[in-house]
Design brief:
Layout: E1 3-7, H1 12-23, E2 27-32, H2 40-49, E3 52-53, H3 56-60, E4 65-68, E5 73-77, H4 83-93, E6 97-100, H5 107-112, H6 114-134, E7 139-145, H7 169-188, E8 192-197, E9 200-201, H8 210-220, E10 224-226, E11 233-234, E12 237-238, H9 239-251, E13 259-264, E14 270-271, H10 272-283, E15 289-291, H11 307-313, H12 321-336
Parallel strand pairs: 1-2, 1-6, 2-5, 6-7, 7-8, 8-13, 9-12, 10-15
Antiparallel strand pairs: 3-4, 4-5, 11-14
The chain binds nicotinamide-adenine-dinucleotide.
Nicotinamide-adenine-dinucleotide binds near residues 43, 104 and 197.
Protein name: NAD-dependent epimerase/dehydratase domain-containing protein
Keywords: NAD
InterPro entries: Epimerase_deHydtase, NAD(P)-bd_dom_sf
Length: about 350
């Protein structure tokens, strides 16, 4: 059993990670600033699922602590840029492992709001690195992104590829995280593992991502925006497969100065039009399609080479896109009470 800090615990991946870690007997501490990038009620409902007695009013007025009913899970509303409170927390709790998932996510939002990304993803990340160094954390696992690969023709994307040409500031901050982590592993001996997530989806998923946006549009009878006239490919990865991969990394023993970066995807890019077909089948609704050109900052395809993670920890994604979307649409219907 380990004592694990999960940042971004009210977020999509963080919530699922906390849930799995608690089920497998770990002690978990979650932090999140509960920002309003998307509907805060979804974040609060995720916390409720984790046994946190959320007083909505308190959270929305930025009060500090939520009480919890799960004795192995504590939650604190905290921003990664609040260096002082972060240091106090690390010193008091003495975590074994830190899983840093908190970040300003979203490629498209970064096109119009680049500066927001520097605060959470660069300033926030250096605060995490420093707190890990000062408190001799045994392993820092952190979220990078497939977006570091930018626009490239050669597939699948391998960790051995050079990734020097990001096409969004979001991607640039994630690449910066990998560089900063390298310094801390090399100079201070902090073991770090970066995970390049490839389009994660599933129940409790993010409202700004295609599975959610498309499903919502279908149930509201609104047109679906289909970029690059539908000619896009994504390596969609189901949340349970991602969590299996992340916990596999957390369970591994690491040595001082270990520095690793892995792709964590499905190794099976799907055509956008097939993805739309599966959502239609799962929801029983016919989509109205609004074909649009390629968006700035977007890439034509993502396709993960996952050999390295497979060899390291036995990672093996199991969920087909069709099956995963059925799970997602099922959750969406229950959560939003639509049929
Ligand atoms: N979901 C994907 O497909 C995907 C793909 C690539 C990378 N990632 C990365 O994985 C991580 C988790 O993504 P997600 O999909 O769960 O996103 P999410 O937005 O649902 O979760 C991130 C959480 O971090 C919190 N947060 C943001 N800035 C913070 C700060 N400064 N201090 C404290 N908390 C803060 C947010 O409130 C949110 O709850 C992120 O780092 C994201 O960049 C996700």
């Amino acid at each position: 059993m380990k004592k694990i800090l999960v940042t971004g615990a009210a977020g999509f991946i963080g919530f699922h990670l906390v849930k799995r870690l608690l089920e497998t007997g770990h002690d978990v501490y979650g932090i999140d600033n509960l920002n309003a990038y998307y509907d805060v009620r979804l974040k609060l409902d995720r916390l409720r699922q984790l046994g946190i007695d959320v007083q909505e009013e308190n959270f929305l007025r930025q009060k500090e602590v939520g009480s919890n009913t799960h004795s192995h899970f504590k939650f604190l509303q905290l921003d990664l840029t609040d260096e002082h409170r972060l240091d106090v927390l690390f010193e008091k709790e003495q975590f074994d492992v830190v899983a840093n998932l908190a970040a300003q996510a979203g490629v498209r939002y970064s096109i119009d709001n680049p500066k927001v990304y520097v605060q959470s993803n660069v300033v926030g990340f250096i605060n995490i690195l420093e707190a890990c160094r000062q408190n001799n954390i045994k392993h820092l696992v952190y979220a990078s992104s497939s977006s570091v690969y930018g626009n490239r023709d050669e597939v699948p994307f391998s960790e051995n590829d050079r990734v020097d040409h990001p096409v969004s500031l979001y991607a640039a901050t994630k690449k910066s995280n990998e560089l900063m982590a390298h310094v801390y592993s090399h100079l201070y001996g902090l073991p770090t593992t970066g995970l390049r997530f490839f389009t994660v989806y599933g129940p409790w998923g993010r409202p700004d991502m295609a599975p959610f946006l498309f499903t919502k549009a279908l149930f509201e009878g609104k047109p679906i925006k289909v970029f690059n006239n539908g000619d896009l490919r994504r390596d969609f990865t189901y949340i349970d497969d991602i969590i299996q991969g992340v916990t596999g990394i957390i369970d591994k023993e690491v040595s001082q100065s270990d520095y690793r970066v892995f792709n964590i995807g499905n190794n099976n890019p799907e055509k956008l039009m097939d993805f739309i077909k599966f959502i239609q089948e799962s929801s029983g609704k016919e989509a109205k399609l609004d074909f649009l050109p390629m968006q700035a900052g977007d890439v034509f395809q993502t396709y993960a080479d996952i050999d390295q993670l497979q060899q390291y920890s036995g990672y093996k994604p199991q969920t087909s896109l069709k099956e995963g979307l059925q799970q997602f649409v099922h959750w969406y219907k229950e959560y939003y009470k639509v049929s």
